[in-house]
Amino acid sequence: MEDPSSNGISTAPLLPQHRGPWWRRNLRLRNPLSSEMSGAVGDLGTYIPIVLTLTLVSHLDLSTTLIFTALYNIATGLLFGVPMPVQPMKSIAAVAVSESPHLSVSQIAAAGLSTAAVLLVLGATGLMSFFYRYIPQPVVRGVQLSQGLSFAFSAIKYIRYEQDFAASKSGSPRSWLGLDGLILALASILFLLLSTGAGDTDSSSSSSSIEDTDGSLELSQSKHRIKQRLRILSSIPSALLVFLFGLVICFVRDPSIFKDIRFGPSKLHVLKITWDDWKTGFFRAAVPQIPLSVLNSVIAVCKLSGDLFPDRELSATSVSVSVGLMNFVGCWFGAMPVCHGAGGLAGQYRFGARTGLSVVFLGLGKLFLGLVFGNSFVRVLSQFPIGILGVLLLFAGVELAMASRDMNSKEESFVMLVCAAVSLTGSSAALGFGCGILLFLLVKLRSMDCSSGFFSFKKSKNPVNEANIIP
């Protein structure tokens, strides 16, 4: 029988052939293993301060939070195939510890469940995908820019000033010397910069293109040496080493930690949430959290995933449902309300995470700490150098803010910057988002030809990138 390939006819299977199970494909290495492990700690600059504050002020059960967030990390790493972060719901945490009276654990759980219910409904009904499809890109970039700069501003405060997380305020300027001094923070910045640079992963390819176009043997050898050095530096798990160094400093600062360690997790129990808890949690904490979760935990995360992983852009529906399901599982047991966050994704990517394997590593680490050390691990976290947390948060914030660098036209940049400015000064992503949408419509209205007497929406292949209103 004649081989079809001999006639130039290629045959392809009717169904796509995938090698191995789906979870193995999602965990397939795309970077050195050391880089994935380094990227795993990229979002701890936001995670640790908020968890520590809620534990000290609101008596959050640290063991339960570590165990459930560990399970979330492992599940999202397996399902999404990207370094999907699991971070605290920041508005709920801010209200819980900064307003008086402080929210109880039951009220915090009620706020998390209320927010989760809204996101679950938006995701299940497809409304979240509709919003994601038609929200103009300059507005999304404005939200990302404001969130990134907010992280960077907080990071600078962590580095420069003493922090009292229990009182939610900064103290006196940090001293230069000491186990949490400025020199330690600056040395961490220097180490991260030398090993990771500006986070540009395309430096090697650009070097090779220059090498190919120049016939000089000496220049070619020089470029080769540079590429080798950059490859070696990028293989160093720099963020992981900085974090582990911070853990060592914890025990050096206070050796009595060894005596306070108690092994074993705390007992799980279902919270009793009263009607008053539901009302207080919803109106005081869930109402400001819901718009932030929609914008930063879903819209901005999906957009950033498309920027960082063009072949693996996340679905707004799946991310929204994921936030809802996570909190419906954990909040009933007193775990901290969580969401996904663009800042965490940017931080993990910045330090080398490229697949779900990095957050699986992080989840396994949290699970070990929660099961072995339980609530006594709060003694370790309370001694962690805040300056090092500030350094990790600084790199994550800058990486997120740099996602807005693709605004090429003056019109797009104008909308983005106003949206970011309002979000920062008003301390509300929802307010900045509303102003950005209004400004975008006004700018488009100015250049419209209204002679046709009606308006219609132009549906593009990528509406987030080309959301335009035309006559």
Structural commentary:
Helices cover 63% and strands 4% of the residues. The chain has 471 residues and is mainly α. A two-stranded antiparallel ribbon has the order 1-4. A two-stranded antiparallel ribbon has the order 2-3. A two-stranded antiparallel ribbon has the order 5-6. The longest helix is centred in the middle third of the chain and has 34 residues, at 275-308. The relative contact order is 0.22. The chain crosses the membrane at residues 62-82, 108-132, 177-198, 232-252, 357-378, 384-402, 414-443. One of its GO terms (molecular function) is molybdate ion transmembrane transporter activity. This is Molybdate transporter 2. Keywords: Membrane, Transmembrane, Transmembrane helix.
Number of strands: 6
Major β-sheet annotation: 2 strands, antiparallel
The topology string of helices and strands comes to HHHHEHHHHEEHHHHHHHEHHHHHHEE
Quaternary structure = single chain
Overall number of domains:
1
Task: Indicate the percent of residues in helices.
Answer: 55-70%
Strand order of the largest sheet: 1-4
- Overall 3D form: globular
SS class: mainly alpha
What percent strand? under 5%
Number of helical stretches of at least 4 residues: 21
CA-to-CA gap between the ends? 61 Å
Poorly predicted regions are 4-18, 202-214, 453-471
From the alpha-carbon coordinates, what is the Rg to the nearest angstrom?
Answer: 24 Å
Return the average pLDDT rounded to an integer: 86
GO molecular function, one term: molybdate ion transmembrane transporter activity
Organism: Punica granatum
Keywords: Membrane, Transmembrane, Transmembrane helix
Protein name: Molybdate transporter 2
